[in-house]
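To the wet lab folks,

You asked to see what we're planning to order before we commit. Fair enough. Below is the target structure as tokens, and below that is the sequence we designed to fit it. If anything looks off to you, flag it before the synthesis order goes out.
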């Protein structure tokens, strides 16, 4: 035949994730750690590289890493599931607890993968929008949960891209109000230092997601993990790809986790950098900065897409733009970089804004950018 049968119609309006490879001097668009792995860890790995068994399949349970994570969190290995990035675990949750005839609740604007994975798995998405300061509308969430048809709740804490935390009392109210699987996504836990871990013993429906991609400099390796009741882990093990976390990633992540005190200093630097960015941006006329507990800062500025373009083309600084995301009109998100990157970003912002003011005095108008590349990436 010379034709192709159509795929699932419900995927028709999904846009494929094709991150364009933009080469820039200062890349602050993906909430990555600004530094590569510390040299001492790389040296340790390099010394043992020739013993590494590339020819063998990985341990499907990531036993060594799982054990280390369980121990650090005061849990049993059966309460830990390691995944190919946090992304895989979000997807697995919707494969197990979502699917046709089932519903997931989220609170936009939030991490885009919840909605994308809902669509891919045929799960109904129930969206309870956040308020003007991106606070979760607790009353609306609780009354929606009371209807009894929600199977999964996904809440990022702190939220990406807004950076704010949900009050712990509200999270407890949510856990008390439902038997749905409640995923508290703590991808930025090492920066916020807030966790729902102490509530796990009372709530078998609480699952916590963490990642090695942010504080531990391993975004390129794809390792995340879930802390959850053993029944949850067992269910997810049914749907996950058995070898999704390769043995190299398991080995490096286990070494990194074992040596994690080494990261304290850079995490502190990132938190200081965040304050520097927030203060620097707040001092600029026309820029509204939202408080952040993560390794990025969200801000609102008039004609954000034009500003995003001028930062990129005029200064080789890439940030993430959300101008087309409902609730985030005219918002940009900058990841905390190295001290030098943060200063370059702030200087570029000052330059673009002062040129804009000068051109306004001469009667010029700002042309919005139609480019979409800045919308891609995490
Ligand atoms: N959750 C949130 C809130 C995130 O921002 C991210 C990454 N940006 C993830 C999960 C997934 O991270 P990864 O797949 O790199 O572990």
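Sequence we intend to order:
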């Amino acid at each position: 035949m010379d034709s192709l049968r159509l795929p699932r119609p419900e995927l028709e309006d999904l846009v494929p994730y094709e991150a364009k490879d933009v080469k820039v001097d200062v890349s602050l668009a993906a909430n990555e750690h600004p530094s590569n792995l510390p040299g001492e860890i790389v040296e340790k790995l390099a010394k043992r590289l020739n013993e590494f068994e590339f020819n063998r399949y990985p341990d499907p349970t990531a036993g060594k890493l799982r054990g280390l994570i369980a121990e650090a969190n005061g849990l049993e290995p059966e309460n830990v599931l390691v995944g190919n990035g946090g992304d895989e675990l979000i997807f697995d949750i919707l494969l197990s607890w979502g699917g046709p005839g089932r519903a997931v609740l989220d609170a936009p604007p939030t991490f885009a993968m919840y909605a994308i994975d809902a669509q891919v798995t045929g799960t109904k998405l129930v969206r309870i929008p956040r308020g003007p300061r991106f606070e979760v509308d607790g009353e609306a969430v609780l009354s929606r949960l009371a209807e009894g048809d929600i199977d999964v709740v996904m809440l990022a804490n702190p939220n990406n891209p807004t950076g704010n935390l949900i009050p712990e009392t509200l999270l407890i109210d949510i856990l008390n109000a439902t038997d749905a699987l409640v995923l508290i996504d703590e991808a930025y836990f090492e920066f916020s230092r807030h966790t729902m871990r102490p509530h796990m013993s009372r709530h078998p429906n609480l699952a916590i997601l963490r990642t090695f991609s942010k504080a531990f400099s391993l975004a390129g390796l794809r390792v995340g993990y879930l802390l959850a009741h053993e029944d949850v882990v067992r269910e997810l093990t049914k749907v996950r790809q058995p070898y999704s976390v390769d043995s190299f990633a398991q080995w490096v992540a286990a070494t990194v986790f074992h040596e994690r005190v080494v990261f304290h200093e850079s995490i502190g630097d990132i938190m200081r950098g965040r304050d520097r960015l927030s203060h620097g941006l707040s001092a600029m006329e026309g820029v509204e900065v939202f408080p952040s507990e993560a390794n990025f800062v969200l801000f609102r500025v008039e004609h954000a897409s034009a500003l995003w373009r001028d930062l990129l083309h005029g200064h080789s600084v890439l940030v993430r733009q959300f101008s087309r995301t409902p609730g985030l009109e005219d918002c940009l998100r900058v990841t905390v970089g190295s001290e030098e990157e943060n200063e370059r970003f702030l200087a570029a912002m000052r330059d673009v804004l002062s040129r804009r003011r000068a051109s306004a005095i001469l009667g010029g108008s700002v042309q919005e950018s139609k480019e979409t590349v800045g919308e891609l990436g995490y």
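Structural context that might help your review: The two ends are 40 Å apart (CA to CA). The pocket of 4'-deoxy-4'-aminopyridoxal-5'-phosphate is lined by residues 31, 85-87, 111, 156, 160, 185, 187, 211, 213, 219, 224, 378 (CB under 6 Å).

Thanks,
Computational group
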